[in-house]
Amino acid sequence: MAVAPITETPKHGHLRRYRQIVDILARHGLGFLIGAHGPGTFLATHIHHKRDRALQPHIARANSSELSEKDPLASASFSTRPVHFRLAIEELGPTFIKLGQILSTRGDLLPAAYLEELAKLQDGAPPVPADAVRQIVLEELGCPLDEVFATFDLHPLASASIGQAHAATLRDGTEVVVKLRRPGVVEQVEEDLHILLDLAQSAERHWSGARYYDLLAIAQEFAQTLRAELDYVQEAHNVERFAANFAADLSVHIPCVYWETTTSRMLTLERIRGIKISDIHTIKKAGLDRATLAGHATRILLTMILDFGLFHADPHPGNIFVEPDGRIALIDFGMVGVVDKATQEFLVRLLLAISRRDAGQLADVVLDMSRSRLHVDRNALRRDMQRMLARYCDLPLGDVKLSVMLGELLTILRWNHLRLPPDLAMLVKTLGMSEGLGVQLDPNFNLMDVYIPYAEELMRRRFSFRQWTGQLMLAGIDAMEMTLALPRQLHHVLGDIERGGFEVNVQPQSFESYLQRMEQLTNRLILGILSAAFTVGLALLVAAYHPSGWDRFAEFLLLLVLAFSGGFGTYVLFLILSSKRRPSQ
Hints:
alpha+beta
C-alpha cells in the first residue's frame, strides 16, 4: 500500500511548524539562513507575500544582535557552522534528518565540511510506549499481538525517528525482527514536505542563488525518496528483489520477508544473527580473514551495481553482518538506488578517462551525466579535471583511492554548478562508503583492485560481438521504421506549408540575458553620443554666432556645458564600472 500524496494542511499548522523551524535555527546560530541578506532572503519575502505577520517576531529574534550575546551557539565562528547545522537538523525531526542523510551523499551540492557533519547524523528517538506498540499491531493485523507472535520484546532493538525494530518469534518458532512505523510520523513528514516544497518554489522566485540549481526538482526528488521509505511494503519488495538477484550466490544472505505480518506500517523480516562488519575484534576472534571479507563485501556491492542494476544505497557498518561461516548478510533496504544502462556505461567511460588521464574525455563524461540550469564552460571544466588528474599522474591506477578522487570530482561539479541525478549521486557516495568500510577491515584495501576487473569484464561484455550485433539490429530496426515514416512526415510538413500553418517556435528565455546586455550597451552608447553631440554642437554655435552682450555670458555658458558633459561622462563611466563588478548572469 503506497503512502498517500500530500494533502493540504491547515494554515495554522504550517505557522506553528514555521515557528519551530525559525526558533531552532536561531538557537543554533543559523539566523543567516532566514535573515535579510544572502540565501535566507527568500523566506522573509515568502512570508511577506503571504501577508503572514505571525512569524516576523521569530525572524527578528533570529537576526537580532542580542542573540549572539545570550546564546553561545549563535556566536559560533563560521568553521563551526556545519556542526550546528547538523545539530539543528537532528532537532528539527525525522523529515530533516532524512534530508540531511540524503544531502550527505551530495558532494555536488554541499562543501566537504558539511558532508562530514551530515554523515554523523544520529537518527535516534525515544522508544514508542508499549501500549502504543500493541495498538499498532492490533490496527494493522486485526488481532492482538499475543495471537500472532509467540514472543515479542516490547523493548526495541533500535529506535529511530521514523520507526523502531523489535525482536520477536513467530508461532512456529522462527526468529524475526518487526519494524513498526512511529505513530503520527506520516502526518509530520507530510507537513514538513509541504513546507520544503513551498520554500523551494519561493526560493526559485526570490533568491538569486537558486538560478544555479533546480531547487524545486531537488525537493521533489527528496520527497519521493522519503515517501518510499515510509512505506514498508515498498521496502519488503526491495528485499525480495535483492533475494532473487542473489538466489544463486550462497555467500550472500538476504533476509526472508514474512508477508502475513507485513503492511505499510509494519515489516516482518527473518532475524539476522552475525557480527557487525565493523566489529574488528570479534571478527579476529572468530578466525575470519579481514582482507578476504573486505574484498567479498566490495564485490557484492559491485555485483549489485554492474550486474543487477539495483544496489543497497546505505551500506554503513550497522547494515552489514558477517555470519560464522563467512557469509555476508545485509539488512535495511529502505534506501536503494537504480543503475540503468546509461549509468553503467558512465562508470566504464569514467574508468577509461581516468586510466588514460584524459581530462577532455572526463569532462565530456561528466557533462553527459550531469544537470545544470546554466551554460557550462567546457574548457574551464576540462582545466579543473586536468588539475585533478595531474595529482595522480605518477601513481598506478591500482594505487588511486577512488573515494578521494570521487570526492574531488564532486567538488569540481559543485564549482561548475553541475548536479548529478539522485541515483548517480547515491552511487558515488555508496562507492566511497564501500571503500571506507574495506579500509576499516583491511588497511591495505584499495577499491580499485576490485573495481578494475569488474569494469574490464563489463567493457568486454559491452564491446563483444554479440552485444554489437544486438545493437546493430536495434539500430537497423529504428532506421527502417524512420525510413518508412519519412514520406508520411514530409507529406504532413508540405501540407502545413501549403495551408500557411507551418511555424518555427523559438524559446526566447535563453536569449533574455543577451538582449538585456545589448539594451544596456545601446543605452550607454546613446548617452555617450548625446554628451559628445551636445558639447560639439554648442561649441560650433558659439563659434558661428555672437549676439550682443555675449561676452559677459560666455564664461558662464562654458562652465555649464562642461558641467553637463562631465555629468554625462561620469554617469556612463559609473555604468561601465558597475557592470564589471556585477556577476555575469
